[in-house]
Protein 1
Amino acid sequence: MGIISALISTYDKTGIDELGMALAKAGVRIFSTGGTAKFLASHNIVVREVNTLTGFPELMGGRVKTLHPHIFAGILARRTMQYDMEELTHRELPPIDLVVVNLYPFREVVKNPTCSLEDALENIDIGGVALLRAAAKNFPAVIVLSSPDQYAEFMDRLASNKLDDDYRRRLALEAFCLTKNYDLAISNWLRGGPQLDAETIAPVYKKSSVLRYGENPHQQASLFLPYGEPPRGIPAARKLNGREISYNNYLDLEAAWKLCREFDKPAAVIVKHNNPCGVALGSDLAEAFHRAYQADAMSAYGGIVAVNRPVDSAAAEQILVKGTFFEAMVAPSYTPEALLELKTRKSWCERFIILELPNFLEGLPGYELRYLVGGLLVQSTDLTLWNDDEVHVVSKAQPSPEMMAQMRFAYTVAKHARSNAIVIAKDYATLGIGMGQPNRVWSMERALASAEEQAKGAVLASDGFFPMPDAPGLALAAGIAGIVQPGGSKADEKVVEEVDRAGAIMVFTGQRHFRH
């Protein structure tokens, strides 16, 4: 089925000059709206204004231009129905075989904190959504292009006459996915933000890439991104080096990035199997990474690295430590010299995945989704560490401002480790991390074993309260000077008594951070 007439009405003019030329070369009549028509004409492409179809001028400065029966009749006419085609002939209307539309950038506009109600409403596309849905409904006869990303394939298929039914169906599906997510963004905005309602917030996802495999080699995996939305987080990072990013790489890179972005000072995070194994701050990135690596050099082998500052040669030198290798890393940027070192210095550098994420401090979404078999769990994102008004010292001994800062560091790391999480830290570097154990005593033993003698005078953070004094007793016996925990256990009084007996410090935050 060939293309005789096309309707082009786009906000984003990317690529429509090339598309218009390809259509003109194929002898296709092009109808278009104001701004798009002028753009095409400026590239010497013959174009007809839509009012030649409607017999009616654009209204309200272009606010109403395509919402007309003559246009929708040309799109919706069923080519196999004699009545429909006779109706078009009677009214001297051409069938429209191709609809090229992209929508007003509503999401981008309302992200601006200074966006006014008027600006938001003006960027809700009405005619474009209607055109996409009409064309997609009649996809056996009408091809619908809803994104500039689709133009190249379309032009190749047009040139080789491969506009088959499967291709048309796929484009229709993508158009409906786009309009669904577009309406979803508008409804979320009207509510004042995403709500904890899966029907409201669960977007439609489109396959972005096929991954090497899933968590294990016998499992298949792909990366999907919300349809019609710009990538964010790790999927938005630019790959500068290395092999294909795997399923596990994505999970670990995100875990490392989420923790690293919490710190204001130069920070380095090393993650293994979705858990932090070394975290440190430093006067510069080189020092931060050296201290993070030294925190647990054994576990760091084959790990994932995140840093929150541009990587320079000094930092690269520390990352390329002797006797180890890393799977991947993400940073805001790299100096040319550092990037060259990271790409070429060692044999493993060839496969070392290096990601650049300029929007390193981008805000996280307000909700999280986790899928069950037959269900979907939705919760608000854990964005805060503690509320200062709820933090109180429960021990007789009082912490200095410096110790409170150390406790904040340790508690931040505990927030990102699997429950039951215990983090021992000193001088803004982790010494031992126990996590993912079925009881807090085992996590405590693991953290203390890693910290060894360095536990003396260190601070300790727990993501949950202590149900009895046994685990804190182990910490105090090892010389831990300060413990920060949520509080709220029936055994709180007994735990505090043990702390006071040891002359140590205990702080309750009133906010736990379980991570299952």
Protein 2
Amino acid sequence: MPTEPSPPEPLITHHSSLITSIGAPRPRLEGPAKVTGAERYAADYTPPGTLWGKALRSPHPHARIVRIDTSAAAALPGVAAVLTAADLPPDTRVGRQLRDLPVLATDRVRFVGDKVAAVAACDPDTAEEALSRIEVEYEPLPAVFEVEEAIRPEAPLVHDPTLIRAWAVPRQVVPDLPNTCAYETWRRGDVAEGFAAADLVVEETYRWPTQHQVYLEPHACLVQIASDGQVHVWASNKAPYLLRRYLAACLGLPAARFVIYPLPVGGDFGGKGSAMDVPLAYFLAQRTGRPVKLVMTYAEELLAANPRHGATIDVRLGLRRDGRLTACQTRILYNGGAYGAFKPTANLMLRGAEKGAGPYRLPHLQIDAYVVYTNTVPAGHMRAPGMVQTVFAIESAVDAACRRLGLDPFAFRRLNVVGDGEPSPAGERYRDVRAQETLDAAEAASGWRAGPPLAGPDSTGRPVLRGRGMAIANKHPRGGGQHARLILDTDGSVTLVTATPETGTGLHTVLRQIVAAELGLSEQAIAVRLADTDDFPFDEGVGGSRLTQMLGAAFQRCAKAARAAVLRAECSPPSGDGAQHPGLRAQDVRNAVAANGGPLVFDADYETAPFGGVTAFHVHVAEVAVDPETGQVVVERLTAAEDVGVVLNPLTHQGQIDGNLVQAFSATLMEDLDVRAGQPAVLHLGDYKVATIADVPPLTTALVESPTGPGPYHAKSIGEGPNTPTAPAIANAVYDACGVRITDPPITAEKVWRGLHQPD
């Protein structure tokens, strides 16, 4: 069973090596391999005899499959196999928690991009040609694309409701509404009473678009089945042990039959946790007796991967004249797409739904969140899943309320934000809350008290309207379990062994710093090795902003045990907490290993409950200029105050903050998968606009440091939280500048122009 976190380690004073390791701006361990092209990703593995697989995808959002003819494709020279659902075991489905996604569509397709058939051929061009020769006859069926339409009584059904209930996982709640995949609610007090006590009630509907993660490496996988039946898998996947579990459940094989090799992941942002095409590669490899590799094109990524959920959010806030909140009622409809297979949570709800009333002190609240099936691309997780959408809605509504009451946005949040020991809207009781300090830091760093930016010309001389806005959010790491191993070898070397891949966050660099600090060794003396799934009992992989806390703590335990063992071998007692002690030498390690008669191996697990009581706050301020003639919005500055505990590596830590800000900035002003009648209108990165370095405004960061983090040396999570307040801060700044409230990002010039020149 998960246990509560151990008490935090003392601040970084307990031995001298920490001065040069923890808190030092170390460059990324894997950086040279990446910039020289030496790093190997899943698509780079091509053993002798490898075939290339490709999938034929549906052009219809909802249709019955009448007939499939694969004879012409099978007759093409170089084609080794052609598969349809008829060639697979009956009802072969895959999913993380909910297995509702067929490996190949059986009787129906449910979104544009649903896989209907697959081929394996000698090269990608031959495989592509074979797909073009497969004939499929479809009978189009009524489809539903918007969440509001999907839950109406007369809506076309994406799935048979009896099957949804049959598939239900233990914590999944399936309400009696058409096309609902999951439901969760949070309630306190009586919202009717709360609104009756309010002097002002504001309400609005907000919409967030479907958004792709835009990782650099598309999904890729290679499957090779050995003569003994062992299945070897190389995949672009952040959670190898979970992938093994998904494959075992889908294919009906023991988990021990699979060996998953952890690989570097070229960007994750939440999107690399599913099995994706691995089951299909398995069946093609089984049919052909050869290794099979599938690499998705970026058109396929945008068409059929697992983007961020679009959402429709109704917010109703009640306030007294002094700004105190009396009630909040929020309804969240997440567009889950055609399948729930990509959601990893046991109840299939996005965890960000619990932020549906913000981080505020509320006597009365009601949050109702739904995941809704539609005939669109199945959605999955993306950085701060579900939270980006809800924070945008709540913080926009709060800003509207502040405007109506004439309240300063900082003063309002100081008045209403939760404090130590108080329950959050989701019922979590926080300790060591740093919300007020983070608000202070954002206000000071942004120069908020100096007054709003002046109207005047922009850099080109055009007259512009200027404004500023702010928003607050909080995020804490999720629980789970991680495993660590440390090996001291005969040559005096130290090897850090983990099954958690590097997804671009700098994790392995920080882990090495922690081990170096505890052993008192140079970081260069410590190697990092990835273990496959035959090596460890279990590891939950990347996710939930938890790895520095959990995996870092597991390696800290390993290193403490290793140091004690070396000192015992040297007949030197370990120093107590708070004492200075000299660092180890390679010779000390060699002596201890020799005394042991072989390598010393130290294993440690670290498990925590879903919430340990400590959360991190994030306050962002945006300054914008709006061209009143065209509606063009330019963000002139972003200021981010981050509640960080103790920073272990300033270089990679700042990289996470900047990456969050740029990603959120891009989503707010540019990104939209633009699904029209079930069909994504953008199928390459020429049309799916993302920010480049030329677009990014000046970024200012203020760090709120404190000895309060739950991680090693009091570190706090930083991987997802800064992704959440940026969008509402920008939207609030646009309103401040020109009086146009954009409730549906991206905030485009056209929307602002219509608000200025064609007001409702």
Protein 3
Amino acid sequence: MTDLRSNHWYGGNDRDGFLHRAWMRRGLPDSAFTGRPQIAIANTASDLVPCNRHLTEVAQHVAAGVWEAGGVPLEMPVVSLGETNVRPTAMLWRNMAAMAIEEMIRANPIDGVVLLGGCDKTIPALLMGAASVDLPAIVVPGGPMLTGTFRGAPLGCGTDVWRLSEDVRGGQLSQADFMAAESSMIRSRGHCNTMGTASTMGLLAEVLGTTVPGTAGLPAPDSRLLAQAHGTGKLAVEMVQVERRPSQVLTAASFHNAIVALAALGGSTNAVVHLLAIAGRLGIPLTLDDFDRIGSDVPLLVNLQPAGQFLMEDFHRAGGLLAVLREVKDLLDPAALTVTGLPLTDYLGDAQIWDREVIAVRNKPVQDAAGIAVLRGNLAPNGAVIKPAAASAHLLQHRGRAVVFDSIEDLHTRLDDEDLDVDADSVLVLRGCGPKGYPGMPEVSNMPMPAKLAREGVRDMVRICDGRMSGTAYGTVVLHVSPEGAAGGPLSKIQTGDWIVLDVPGRRVDVELSEDELRERPVAQAMADAVAKPRRGWELLYVNSVQGAEDGADLDFLRGATGHVVERESH
């Protein structure tokens, strides 16, 4: 076994060794400081992040596994982000959480780390931070909640919030019934039970090779998650002993496999910005176009909301992630390793589909070629994305008149105005919602239907935005438009009444203006007045340093890895 990093704190009989050991004893045995791997448990549990609250119990089982394997477990609370509560948007804080996690891993006397996350931004932040330090690291996803029901029907977290709220706006559901559903949606511990961002990133953490295979997708209340947590603690010690690091697991082959899986799962568009950001920390040249090149022709195999019918509890019962990956094994790169040291493809031989209504076989998919599509054109020179699996087929090729909103406040003020000049063929455009503009790139792209159209039964329209869409949402939404409006992108110059053409098969999104017309138009003053103008703190640092969506919306000075070495002593 290599010389432990922690020995640089705890080894020796000088003053510094005395100081580090003495303050850390607090009940630890003498043997804790004599060559035993120190394993941090980076825990995102928080009462303000309800999807992650149960991770404290998970941490206890990880710790038991670490002790059993001869290591010393040390719980390390880290920044946590709750998708439903944090304002102005949790995405504003993902990079801060990743930076804090990175620095705490590097600064402390640890040899490896177990990463506990659940809610949307926590697993991406944990992986970004761990990748930048490159000490042995392994993930335990917190898992989805069990299925709630309302009046005998299953409820999908997020997806049914959007659906039910539109039913209220359209007059098909009373306000009283809408409120009655609230107490039925969240049935148990765990994150959202749709194929939203939390489920997507938990599953992709396994596809990337960073979990014990067979862990991702286990429901949060399932006792097998605790057993897997115990095994993860044991494996973390082994990883330190053999020096198995993120840079050996998170390779170009791993990201290739993640893109294939993202398409087959019908996963969240948010995975695009997260995978780009993680790859950027490792120096892997992943680009937006790779998602189209690798994933666009992959069939959708998973019949889960928002692109389908079922929920995560059904997905696990039907065979789970490994069963899906077995169906597309020929599309996977066999060179990609997992934290066990074995290739991911080695774990697919015994995987079975137990319910083909939930997980389809390859030759009878839910949809053909349903992977995320990357669009370009004079509205999105640096790219935009759309999720065809969650869109309306008849709108994937569409020409409509723009109805432009300069901010989320403008949208809220005018959307339901009976005098708004809008019809079902219009294209709703919301700008000023990118990484710099909001700030933080919020999940507002899936704009509600104008009330007067909702009452007519309209449930989808083409919508275009430089922000993001909840992974639980659905609709024909072009999002992540780059350059964003606040950066002076073309989206900032279009006007209500301009004609917009969406051509998903042709991978285009354009406004019918000449190059000269578009160049000469000024940026909309109302949007410029509404975008973020921070004066201090994290928001100022973020707006001044954040990159575009096509680069993962990471901070420019955090690209690449720094490693784990800290040269100077603390005293």
